[in-house]
Design brief:
Layout lengths: L1 H23 L1 E8 L10 E4 L5 E3 L5 E6 L4 E6 L6 E5 L4 E5 L9 E2 L8 E2 L7 E5 H5 L6 H6 L5 E3 L14 E3 L7 E5 L2 E2 L29 E7 L4 H4 L6 E7 L7 E9 L6 E12 L3 E12 L19 H5 L11 E16 L2 E17 L28 E19 L2 E19 L13 E22 L2 E18 L2 H4 L16 E17 L4 E12 L3 E13 L4 E12 L3 H5 L2 E7 L2 E7 L5 H4 L9 E15 L2 E18 L14 H10 L3 E3 L1 E23 L2 E17 L12 H4 L2 H8 L5 E11 L2 E10 L2 E3 L9 E3 L2 E11 L4 E8 L38 E9 L1
Parallel strand pairs: 1-7, 13-16, 31-34
Antiparallel strand pairs: 1-4, 2-3, 2-5, 5-6, 8-9, 10-15, 11-12, 13-14, 15-16, 17-18, 17-43, 18-19, 19-20, 20-21, 21-22, 22-23, 23-24, 24-25, 25-26, 26-27, 27-28, 28-29, 29-32, 30-31, 32-33, 33-35, 35-36, 36-37, 37-38, 38-41, 39-40, 41-42, 42-43
Length: 869
């Protein structure tokens, strides 16, 4: 009897346990290896006929939450046969993949009807894992991509107000505004900042890439092809799609710290990532991160000040002119989540997003005593002699992103309904400075105002495959808002605070616009090898009108060894609200001296009276063609050509002064200068046509037997060239200002501020618990052009930056990593002024700042620990 009761109890406990397991969710854990038992990292694990998936970690392990059991999983990786496995209960599963001569890595970007493999895609797509990004040793996602994707460029700026805290980034040499950034396939909001200083990307608006924590990212897919017909505005150069983590088996904690060879730039960061599971297949992946970064200083040492024509005792006692030039100070905190919950077998709810907050401090030009002769005792400690001061530019940046939606079945179609809200803001504080006109009553810290940009986006997408035909269509509605908040009166009155006069009440605004778009895509697999497809999109904007874009593409498989592909598309980029409405006054080097310069917005009567037309959309034509070949199981190569023509490109004008290109006075312009107490004015205008041509080449050779371990080699190359076509488009009333509106200096920001050649050559090695990465990045030459005199141009030669990263698994739960970035302490060429003090601001700058290759911090050391539990 007791035996029977014990058996019944065991059955009851088993049933109870199974019921409890069902309640907490269907979580599948497993490991993927090759035929010899070696764990395979970065294998795509995808729930069949969904976009629910993860990648295996370095130990080949994965954790995936599914809606219900049984579930069919698809395992795919480059160089291995794709495997489907149906699981009927929740358990630990071991998967063995066989090597094969195919390219089967699944990607989601660029295929709005259904996911495709790299081989099946008709356009070039990079799939970069977070492991590859972290191996660069860089601290931000924009810098990580710079050192893994040859056609992607970003570098830290300095002495450039808020631009020093954002770092403009671009793809294929087409500027920050022409790359669309997605998170989990949904549009990411732009930043609040227009890059109005003398940096690459001047006059443009990008996405705040620093707002997305690396610890929350599973991988980044980069579509290197025009995609306006699929995704709308900004996708002229391509699309960066950031895929967030889903199921993670362990709680992972990362702690890293670093410092430069010079002993400055100390940084430390920590983050934790964990997945909470609930219900039947529900999960929340959460990431919390904190970081701190100190400034660096690489100022010049001229011993005199040619900008002011001064060589006296003060300059000899202060050969660096009191300057601090380098990366800014930065404190950062972020929280990101990615969640899903299946209501039933046909409907899944999802939500993702996060909050990022950064406080930064950069520096303006030092005010020596011969520039500002007195600080009224406000900045000088009691008993000390006044010695000048260096104003600080302090930012409070906040970025919010949240998307909620549902994927469901509707009449046999896969449907996706979502809503997104995104907002980026930057508040300015000007510190350690004074408003000279206020004398001893001046504050020493000023609230200089704020910018904010936000959008609300609604999407409804549907897709379905009918045998060999895949159909997709959808609609999008978006409202955008640009806000400018004025600073305190003391920041702008009577000339304003030294270094940055605050935003004035006349600059304040709150403007919106709306747009509605619809698209359709069609892919036809004519045969197993031959695909043709296309897309069309119509958009209507409330401020400038409508646009119609289209695209056709095709690919042909070369057996199972590779693919030929080509596409042609038209595209567009709507002028940003920032470019339409921005206005301010800045203290800059203008007219060969330090003075206040005014930016007037595109709707201002002042600008309209000069004959400047309202901004309208840029249009583009994009041609690409390429080949991908799998030469062997472990050896792949690809080569792609692209040609992008952009018409009516929006540019930020040069300095418009009281005299035209021929030196003749212009009474209308002079009156504007006098009325606004500025020496020059600037504005945005559709002024230029450009053509960008280039090649992307990649080579990957992996699993090479070497010293009892496995060696991998990779080579990636981008060569591109942008040139201006036709005449600069000039308003009739400013016909003699053609050079001033878009002079040689401004042109160089488009054609030569970024390297036209970038080469990555690297190796990775794994032996048991030891891993090593070696990467060499060649940044090609860049050229700074003088505004009017070609004899004063300077070309800065190409350089090779070598990075090394080492890792060791101390145990199953603890691993150690160490990196040396810029191993050989390489710096750019030094500035040769050739008699023009503006190129180095009187010797303050030792290295180029208006054109940029890789920054100038020199060698950096970094080390960290990863804990799993």
């Amino acid at each position: 009897m007791n035996t029977l009761m014990k058996a019944k109890n065991k059955i009851f406990v088993f049933i109870l346990l199974m019921s409890f397991t069902s309640m907490i969710g269907q979580t599948i854990k497993g490991k993927v290896t090759d035929e010899s038992g070696v764990p395979l990292a970065l294998v795509n694990v995808l729930e069949k006929e969904t976009v629910n998936g993860v990648s295996t970690n370095e130990q080949g392990e994965f954790v995936l939450n599914v809606k219900k059991m049984p579930a069919t999983l698809v395992f795919s990786s480059v160089g291995f046969t794709t495997l489907e496995k149906t699981l009927y209960n929740v358990s630990f599963v071991t998967i063995v993949l066989k090597e094969d001569n195919v390219l089967e890595e699944v990607v989601l970007t660029g295929n709005r009807a259904k996911p495709r493999t790299i081989l099946d895609s008709a356009v070039p797509i990079d799939n970069v894992s977070v492991r590859e990004l972290q191996a660069t040793g860089q601290t931000n996602i924009d810098q990580m991509l710079t050192y893994t994707v040859p056609s992607y460029n970003s570098s830290n700026q300095t002495i450039s107000d808020a631009t020093a805290h954002f770092d403009p980034a671009d793809l294929r040499g087409l500027g920050p505004s022409r790359t669309l950034v997605l998170v989990n396939g949904k549009r990411k909001n732009q930043s609040a900042l227009v890059y109005v200083n003398d940096t690459p990307g001047k006059g443009e608006v990008g996405v705040d890439m620093k707002s997305i924590p690396t610890a929350a990212i599973e991988r980044v897919e980069i579509l290197r092809d025009g995609a306006s017909a699929q995704y709308g505005s900004d996708a002229v150069a391509g699309v960066v799609n950031i895929i967030l983590k889903k199921g993670v088996e362990f709680t992972q904690v990362n702690v890293n710290s670093g410092v430069t060879k010079e002993g400055d730039g100390f940084n430390i960061d920590g983050d934790v990532n964990h997945t909470f599971t609930f219900g039947e297949g529900g999960f929340v992946n959460a990431t919390l991160g904190l970081s701190y970064q100190e400034k660096t200083d690489r100022a010049g040492e001229p011993g005199k000040d040619d900008l002011f024509g001064v060589d006296n005792q003060w300059t000899r006692d202060n050969p660096d002119l009191g300057m601090i030039i380098g990366q800014p100070e930065m404190k950062k905190g972020d929280l990101f989540v990615n969640a899903e919950y299946p209501l039933n077998e046909n409907t899944t709810l999802y939500g993702f997003g996060g909050f990022n907050m950064r406080q930064g401090k950069s520096f303006a030009l030092y005010r020596p005593p011969y520039w500002i002769t007195d600080d009224f005792g406000l900045l000088t400690p009691p008993g000390e002699t006044y010695d000048g001061f260096q104003p600080t530019f302090e930012t409070d940046i906040q970025d919010i992103l949240f998307t909620a939606g549902s994927r469901f079945k509707l009449g046999g179609f896969n449907a996706d309904l979502s809503g997104s809200y995104g907002r980026n803001s930057v508040d300015y504080t000007i510190g350690n400075t004074i408003n000279v006109s206020l004398g001893a009553n001046s504050p020493t810290s000023f609230d200089a105002g704020a910018y904010a940009f936000s959008n609300i986006v609604g999407n409804f997408d549907m897709s379905r495959s009918f045998g060999d035909v895949s159909l997709g269509f959808g609609v999008e509605a978006r409202q955008e808002r640009f806000e400018v908040t004025a600073g305190e009166e003391a920041s702008y009155i009577d000339g304003g605070a030294q270094s940055f006069p605050g935003l004035q009440p006349g600059n304040a605004l709150n403007e919106t616009r709306t747009n509605v778009g619809g698209y359709g895509t069609l892919d036809w697999d004519v045969s197993e090898d031959f695909l043709i497809g296309g897309a069309v999109r119509y958009e209507n904007y409330s401020d400038f009108g409508d646009n119609f874009s289209w695209k056709v593409n095709s690919r042909y498989k070369l057996g199972e060894a590779g693919v030929l592909r080509a596409s042609y598309s038209t595209g567009f980029r709507a002028p940003s609200l920032h470019q339409v409405y921005l206005s301010n006054v800045q203290t800059l080097v203008s007219g060969g001296t330090i003075s206040n310069q005014g930016t007037f917005n595109n709707v201002s009567p002042v600008i309209r009276d000069l004959g400047v037309d309202p901004l309208f959309a840029e249009t583009s034509k994009n041609v690409s063609a390429g080949i991908t070949v799998k030469a062997s199981n472990d050896f792949t190569i690809s080569l792609d050509y692209y040609n992008v023509k952009v018409d009516d490109r929006v540019v930020f004008s040069g300095e418009i002064g009281g005299t035209d290109d021929d030196g003749n006075p212009n009474a209308d312009v002079q009156q504007i200068l006098d009325d606004n107490s500025v020496t020059s004015i600037k504005f945005f205008i559709n002024a230029a046509d450009t053509k960008t041509e280039g090649f992307d080449y990649t080579m990957r050779y992996k699993n090479i037997d070497f010293a009892a371990g496995k060696l991998g080699l990779n080579l990636a190359l981008n060569i591109n060239k942008t040139k201006l076509e036709g005449e600069v488009k000039t308003p009739t009333k400013l016909a003699n200002y053609k050079n001033a509106i878009f002079n040689r200096k401004e042109q160089s920001r488009i054609i030569s501020a970024r390297p036209n050649t970038k080469l990555l050559f690297g190796a990775d090695y794994k032996y048991k618990k030891f891993t090593a990465f070696l990467n060499n990045t060649y940044f090609g030459e860049v050229t700074w052009q003088h505004a009017t005199d070609p004899n004063k141009d300077q070309t800065f030669t190409g350089k090779i930056i070598t990075d090394i990263s080492l890792g060791y698994e101390l145990s199953d739960m603890i691993s150690f990593n160490a990196q040396v970035n810029n191993l050989f302490d390489v710096y750019p060429d030094e500035i040769d002024t050739k008699g023009d003090v503006v190129t180095d601001l009187g010797g303050r700058f030792k290295y180029p700042w208006e054109v940029n290759q890789f920054g100038f911090n020199g060698m950096t050391f970094k080390a960290g620990l990863t804990f799993k539990f």
